[in-house]
């Protein structure tokens, strides 16, 4: 991957441009590189606007071309309602402004001002009030490499074992009270009954951690090619080669509720398993939207040979 420094950008008077196509997820962009005004205009002219409009659902993540300056301001030209186009300006204070056009060429003066003067006259723009929508995810580029970190492991362990810890604490209190009152049979009974619950939970958490601790996944919604496997040398896969996807999870009340993994079967007979300690299943299902996902039980992951 070619690394382009901010110094190069300043010398050439360019800004970072990037492209989104239909079915991309928030933060997913391609063709990320520095361009000047004329190069960005060529990019806009060559973009397949009419083709991308087919079956579109208008949102902030849509077929578009985004320009980003070094201060954290974004200008995005995108498809809009009723055959129109829209220019989104999202500033570093995370305020959102929009202006629509019947012809995308109407946005050119604003794009030129943003690129060459580093500012935008907002008197023609409408300020959008979008509290609690976290709009930055639709403009900033996201890193789609998934691997375990200490923070991710702690969050997963806490989420999966909170109920177990709560129940164990309550039972421990009752056991101490029973022992204090010399009710040893009651205390022994509670320990025997409660042990399988939290022991199983901890074993399953350990199972997921050990399986995923050396793995890395790179996958986006818009790209067919993805990588998964050992962090030092992940294997390349293609979504078009997928035969079926099986989600191993338990529904309803169970000590295993919240543990799940997707097992992907390929046409050549290969399989891979991606546990939700690495990436949550709802996000993964969104990336595999073109696949038929079958629900199964038994979320325990067998150790690889």
Automatic annotation (TrEMBL):
InterPro entries: PH_40. It holds the Pfam family PH_40. The chain crosses the membrane at residues 162-182, 188-209. Keywords: Membrane, Transmembrane, Transmembrane helix. Residues 156-287 form the PH domain. The keyword Transmembrane applies. This is PH domain-containing protein.
């Amino acid at each position: 991957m070619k690394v382009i420094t901010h110094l190069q950008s300043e010398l050439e008077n360019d800004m970072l441009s990037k492209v989104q196509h239909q079915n991309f997820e928030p933060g997913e962009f391609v063709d990320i590189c520095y361009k000047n005004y004329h190069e960005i205009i060529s990019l806009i002219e060559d973009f397949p606007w009419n083709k991308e409009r087919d079956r579109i659902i208008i949102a902030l993540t849509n077929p578009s071309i985004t320009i980003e300056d070094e201060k954290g301001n974004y200008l995005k030209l995108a498809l809009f309602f009723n055959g129109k186009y829209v220019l989104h300006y999202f500033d570093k204070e995370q305020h959102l402004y929009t202006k629509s056009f019947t012809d995308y060429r109407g946005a050119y003066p604003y794009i030129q001002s943003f690129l060459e003067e580093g500012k935008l006259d907002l008197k023609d723009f409408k300020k959008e009030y979008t509290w609690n929508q976290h709009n930055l995810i639709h403009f900033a580029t996201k890193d789609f490499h998934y691997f375990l970190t200490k923070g991710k492991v702690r969050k997963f362990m806490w989420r999966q074992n909170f109920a177990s810890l709560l129940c164990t604490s309550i039972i421990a209190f009752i056991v101490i009270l029973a022992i204090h009152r010399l009710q040893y049979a009651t205390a022994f009974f509670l320990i025997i009954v409660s042990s399988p619950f939290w022991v199983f939970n901890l074993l399953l958490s350990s199972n997921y951690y050990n399986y995923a601790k050396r793995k890395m996944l790179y996958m986006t919604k818009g790209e067919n090619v993805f990588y998964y496997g050992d962090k030092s040398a992940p294997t390349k896969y293609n979504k078009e080669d997928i035969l079926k996807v099986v989600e191993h999870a338990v529904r309803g009340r169970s000590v295993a509720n919240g543990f799940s993994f997707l097992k992907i079967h390929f046409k050549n007979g290969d399989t891979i398993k991606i546990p939700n300690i690495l990436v949550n299943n709802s996000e993964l299902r969104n990336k595999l939207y073109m696949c038929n996902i079958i629900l199964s039980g038994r979320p325990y992951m067998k150790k690889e040979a």
